[in-house]
């Protein structure tokens, strides 16, 4: 089986090519089956299936002119010039045969594939697809079930349910249960009265290696790196920047030959993301390239029902509008300054891991390469290959909204306030039946607009699932389509013009059952899919990478405690689960149904994000009221202004002290702290530096009236305006430990050296 993605509009050209090729294949010795199948849920993906009588027949085909001609003809039709992804299998001779270590099970791989061929008359297609969506959600919870694809033979009523199981025993135990037919498969049982089932097992290539038919470019290259990052979107680029800032060798690969150049993905950059970008060194070019989003207006049935202005003086940065392609450009440029360049046109096809690392197979235009890394991070989006190979499943199944939406980039002539996100809704009997979301872009009167797609698009698909996220697979909506929606929902007289591009998409949502498997991690859309409400997807992925990268860097250097990497899933998955759930709830509401609108906005901007329930954070507070006014362990460390350091002629921010790639120990002392306590703080700081191999920086923040200590370390900073004392709720002697990701790891009042050392052991293990 060879799987590949065809460029939009070239599907008929592919089918014509296949008609010719199938005739050529039929004349080859040993060719027993030739089929072109189309993914029923992702219509740009096709699968070529060939079957051969024996290995000699397969090798003869691969070395011959038919394979070479097919490869050359496919290249201009496919999304990338890379060879198709291959899956090679042997058919089991009978039920249960080929289990682990049995015939046709190369290398003892216990997995099993099941091909169920069913006939679905066109008149009953909608019934089948509705039932199949239910079955897919039910079967996800069956022990041993991994994943499946629904494939269609173009121009016929024949469909293939192609499923992968962990072992043959799991599959036969399931079908051996007489209740399984109604419990899981019941909704499509009428279509299973007559079906054909075939069972396969993984097989190695007869030549003993993965082959790319007819390319004449096969190579066997070995390369090594500390971390392999799959996917060069915002999540993968953020992880790479953070690793490179810490001197960790990494490779970033992406299957696309060139980055996407239109704004059909994320636009909103959250306030917390702007703080991260400040530390990464791209906040100024981001502000120069973007547009401030200053508020939100909501209309229902033509009447304004809510207005929120986001001009909050206490924000570190406001909410920025910036197309995702600009975000990727800025991060890519920053990564290049750190000596790392994205390897484009490089597709991950598989990997294996052991106790020391991961070996990945990467296919490029030059051939096949094996990359050996200590860790692998899958940031490869909604169709993640990493997620697929790990066998991760979406908890509760992958949800999809039934509606189809269209997305357009246009100019709009109307009388609306600049910089505001605008949401127009129409309700009938309390139910939303129309929605128009308009996000301003840089440029005069330019907006990205999302609304329900015209009925003809739904009719065109028969209700079939569009892939998660944005796509152009169902054709391009016209300016007239958009104007029809505007006439119904926007203020009278509103006109759209200058349609730059448009597409159709369906909203999917879900979160995987786990974020880590050994030395392999998933982040961003590979781990969670969101409705676009609140613009959470990209920003959440950036937060994933921000949390994970500093931990992997310590692990690569051999100074991480054994449980440190586990904390990535412990901290990030609950956040992802909460965000997915909130985005689903808000998708078809006016988004202004909370009493505290300011808190809602701060939550959306990730400024209230806390890891308070993480086992990696802690405190030691003798008085229950001590530090009550300050940030809790796990909370984001708030910034403070008005600090002064001797020899510096301007006030400092707390962020000037905590920025960087290491932990920061902030000790505080007021005028009640004696010389002996100050000396103990200096001794503790020196001891912490030894315990953590220099991975903790430190400062002594002095109250305005506190005496100046004699000790030269840690460096001293005066809290001249009392901002730190107020924001962190400190008095007497106290300390806060700020993690590299800007969250509070530990706090103590009074200073408890022993408890701090115990906490550091959770992060750094037995270093020192």
UniProtKB/TrEMBL annotation:
Residues 701-723 are annotated as: Disordered. InterPro entries: ABM_dom, Dimeric_a/b-barrel, FAD-bd, FAD/NAD-bd_sf, RIFMO-like. Pfam families: ABM, FAD_binding_3, Rng_hyd_C. SUPFAM superfamilies: Dimeric alpha+beta barrel, FAD/NAD(P)-binding domain. Its cofactor is FAD. Residues 112-200 form the ABM domain. The keyword Acyltransferase does not apply. Signal peptide: none annotated. Keywords: FAD, Flavoprotein, Monooxygenase, Oxidoreductase. The keyword Oxidoreductase applies. GO terms for molecular function: monooxygenase activity. This is FAD-dependent monooxygenase.
């Amino acid at each position: 089986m060879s799987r590949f993605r065809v460029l939009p509009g070239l599907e008929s050209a592919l089918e014509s090519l296949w008609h010719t090729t199938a005739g050529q294949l039929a004349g080859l010795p040993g060719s027993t089956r030739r089929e072109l199948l189309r993914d029923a849920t992702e219509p740009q993906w096709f699968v070529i299936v060939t079957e051969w009588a024996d290995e000699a027949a397969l090798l003869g085909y691969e070395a011959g002119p038919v394979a070479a001609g097919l490869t050359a003809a496919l290249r201009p039709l496919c999304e990338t010039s890379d060879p198709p992804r291959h899956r090679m299998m042997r058919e089991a001779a009978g039920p249960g045969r080929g289990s682990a270590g049995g015939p046709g099970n190369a290398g003892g791989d216990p997995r099993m594939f099941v091909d169920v061929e069913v006939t679905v008359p066109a008149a009953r297609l909608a019934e089948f697809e509705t039932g199949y969506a239910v079955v897919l959600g039910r079967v996800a919870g069956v022990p041993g079930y991994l994943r499946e694809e629904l494939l269609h033979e173009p121009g016929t009523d024949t469909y293939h349910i192609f499923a992968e199981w962990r072992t043959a025993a799991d599959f036969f135990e399931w079908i051996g249960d007489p209740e399984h037919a109604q419990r899981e498969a019941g909704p499509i049982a009428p279509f299973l009265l007559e079906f054909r089932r075939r069972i396969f097992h993984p097989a190695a290539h007869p030549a003993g290696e993965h082959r790319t038919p007819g390319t004449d470019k096969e190579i066997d290259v070995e390369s090594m790196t500390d971390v392999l990052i799959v996917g060069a979107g915002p999540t993968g680029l953020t992880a790479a920047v953070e690793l490179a800032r810490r001197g960790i060798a990494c490779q970033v690969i992406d299957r696309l030959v060139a980055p996407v150049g239109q704004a059909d993905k994320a636009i909103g950059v959250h306030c917390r993301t702007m703080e991260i970008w400040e530390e990464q060194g791209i906040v100024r070019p981001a502000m120069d390239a973007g547009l401030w989003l200053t508020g939100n207006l909501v209309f229902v049935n033509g009447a304004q029902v809510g207005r929120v202005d986001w001009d909050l003086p206490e924000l570190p940065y406001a909410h920025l509008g910036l197309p995702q392609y600009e975000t990727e450009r800025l991060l890519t440029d920053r990564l290049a300054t750190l000596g790392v360049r994205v390897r484009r046109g490089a597709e991950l096809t598989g990997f294996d891991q052991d106790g020391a690392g991961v070996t990945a197979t990467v296919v490029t235009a030059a051939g096949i390469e094996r990359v050996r890394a200590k860790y692998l991070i899958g940031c490869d989006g909604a169709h993640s290959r990493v997620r697929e190979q790990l066998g991760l499943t979406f908890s509760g199944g992958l949800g999809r909204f039934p509606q189809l939406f269209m997305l357009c980039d246009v100019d709009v002539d109307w009388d609306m306030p600049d910089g505001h996100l605008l949401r127009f809704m129409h309700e009938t009997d309390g139910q939303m039946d129309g929605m128009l979301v308009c996000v301003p872009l840089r440029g005069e009167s330019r907006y990205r607009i999302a609304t329900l797609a015209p009925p003809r698009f739904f009719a065109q698909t028969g209700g079939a699932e569009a892939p998660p996220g944005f796509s152009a697979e169902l054709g391009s909506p016209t300016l007239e389509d958009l104007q029809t929606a505007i006439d119904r929902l926007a203020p009278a007289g509103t006109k759209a013009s200058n349609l730059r591009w448009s597409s159709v998409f369906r909203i999917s949502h879900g979160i995987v059952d786990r974020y880590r498997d050994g030395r392999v991690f998933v982040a961003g859309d590979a781990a969670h899919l969101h409705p676009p409400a609140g613009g959470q997807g990209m920003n959440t992925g950036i937060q994933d990478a921000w949390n994970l990268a500093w931990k992997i860097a310590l692990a690569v250097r051999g100074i991480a405690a054994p449980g440190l990497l586990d904390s990535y899933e412990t901290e990030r998955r609950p956040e992802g689960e909460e965000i997915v759930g909130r985005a689903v709830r808000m998708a078809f509401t006016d988004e202004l149904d909370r009493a505290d609108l300011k808190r809602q906005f701060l939550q959306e901007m990730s400024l209230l994000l806390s890891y308070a329930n993480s086992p990696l954070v802690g405190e030691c507070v003798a008085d229950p009221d001590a530090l009550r006014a300050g940030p809790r362990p796990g909370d984001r460390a708030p910034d403070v202004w008005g600090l002064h350091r001797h020899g510096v002629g301007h006030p400092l921010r707390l962020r000037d002290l905590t920025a960087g790639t290491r932990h920061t120990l902030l000790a505080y002392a007021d005028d009640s702290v004696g010389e002996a306590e100050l000396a103990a703080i200096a001794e503790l700081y020196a001891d912490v530096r030894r315990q953590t191999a220099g991975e903790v920086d430190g400062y002594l923040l002095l109250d305005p009236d506190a005496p100046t200590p004699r000790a030269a370390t840690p460096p001293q900073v005066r809290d001249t305006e009392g901002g730190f004392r107020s924001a962190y709720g400190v008095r007497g002697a106290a300390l806060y430990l700020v993690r590299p990701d800007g969250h509070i790891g530990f706090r103590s009042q009074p200073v408890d050296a022993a408890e701090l050392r115990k906490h550091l052991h959770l992060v750094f293990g037995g270093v020192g």
